[in-house]
Amino acid sequence: MLPAAAEYQYLWEISSGKVSGGATVRTFGRLNSYDMANSEAILAVQHASTQHQLQVRTTLVEPFSAHLGSYYMALGELESDASPILCARLLVCIDGADLSLLQQAVEEQRSYLQGRHEETGGR
Asked: Which PANTHER family is this protein grouped with (predicted)?
């Protein structure tokens, strides 16, 4: 069986507990640390004067060329509700991407999907 399609969730939404465990998500943030021996990385992002972090399990994407301080997009499943851990299926460097346009695209996609959901009556 194929995994569920990933929805964009901002890192601050995940770290604040707005996204439940088991969800398939796509997010992005700056690579703060990477521990190859334990297959763990930390993505971080600044939002509304608060630093948000997300632990990422990198077992399925290794080996990868980690560049601390670079922005990465991660796709995977959340393993926990209390302290979310993202088990990454994809981890790709997105340095050079216009993050404000990416956020605008996420908002447009959410708006479109919400409208489509309302048209079908929640089906």
From this structure: CST COMPLEX SUBUNIT TEN1
